[in-house]
Amino acid sequence: MGAVSCRQRQHFRVPTPRKCGNIQGPLARGWKSLWCGVGTIRSGLEELWELQGHQEPLRPAPLLLEKTLSEWPVPQFISLFLPEFPMRPVRRQQQLKILGLVAKGSFGTVLKVLDCAQKAVFALKVVPKVKVLQRDTLRQCKEEVSIQRQINHPFIHSLGDSWQGKRHLFIMCSYYCTDLYSLWAAVGCFPEASVRLFAAELVLVLCYLHDLGIIHRDVKMENILLDDRGHLKLTDFGLSRHLPQGARAYTICGTLQYMGERAKDGG
C-alpha cells in the first residue's frame, strides 16, 4: 500500500511498462475517477468535490454488485484481480465514510476513512484498474496484497482488508497520522536513544521479512509510520517481492531521491 505520509516523492520502475492494447478510452483522472463502485465512499467524494468549489452536476455510475456472486463466470475485468481482490457486498462498502485525503501519488490515492460498523479509522488506498493494466503492474499489485496477508509482526503496518469494485482496487490498513520523515522534519535531530530504538526495530522487521524470503525494496523514512507509543510500523509493500532462497531481483526501483548517482544512471 502507498505510504500514508502526505509527503510524496518520485517513484519509478525499469523497464518501462508495456501498454495494454485492450484498454479503451481515456484514463480517468482526479477525484471523479473514484466515484464508480465505491458505495457511500462515492458520496463522500462528491461532498469533498463540492467543498473544493466544483459545482458541476454529479451523475454517479450504478453499483456493480446487483447480481449474486454465484452467477459466474465473472467478467475478465473482475477475474483478473482475483483472488487477492475479492468482490465485497455493497453493504460492506456503505459502512465507510471519507474523512479526508492522506496522499495522492502515481500509483493511487490514499484516503482517511471511518468504518462506521467498527467505529475505527483506517487508511484506504484506491487504485484504478485501468492504470494497473496500462502500466503492466498487475502481478506486482497482487503480490503486494499476497505478501501483506502472510506477514504478522508488531513493527509492520498490517493489512486490514482488500477488495475490488467495478473500476478500482481497494487496500485498507490501520491509520497512523505520523511518519518518521514528518517527525524528523518537525523536531530536527533525533536523540541518540531514539535513533537506537528506531534502528533496532527496523533491523528486527527486515530480518523477519528476509527470513520469509521477502524484500521490501523501498525502505525510507516516509514509509516508516509511528504508532501512538512511538514504535515503528513499516508500510508500503507496493514494490516488495517474494523470492525463493538464493534468487535475485534485477529491476531498478525505489525512490529517486534516495539513490546514488550510479543507480540513477543504471550503473
TrEMBL record:
GO terms assigned for molecular function: ATP binding; protein serine/threonine kinase activity
Domain of life per record: Eukaryota
Entries under InterPro entries matching the protein: Kinase-like_dom_sf, Prot_kinase_dom, Ser/Thr_kinase_AS
Keyword line: ATP-binding, Kinase, Nucleotide-binding, Serine/threonine-protein kinase, Transferase
Every Protein kinase domain range: 96-267
PANTHER family: G PROTEIN-COUPLED RECEPTOR KINASE/RIBOSOMAL PROTEIN S6 KINASE, RIBOSOMAL PROTEIN S6 KINASE-RELATED PROTEIN
Protein name from the UniProt record: Ribosomal protein S6 kinase related
Protein's organism: Jaculus jaculus (Lesser Egyptian jerboa)
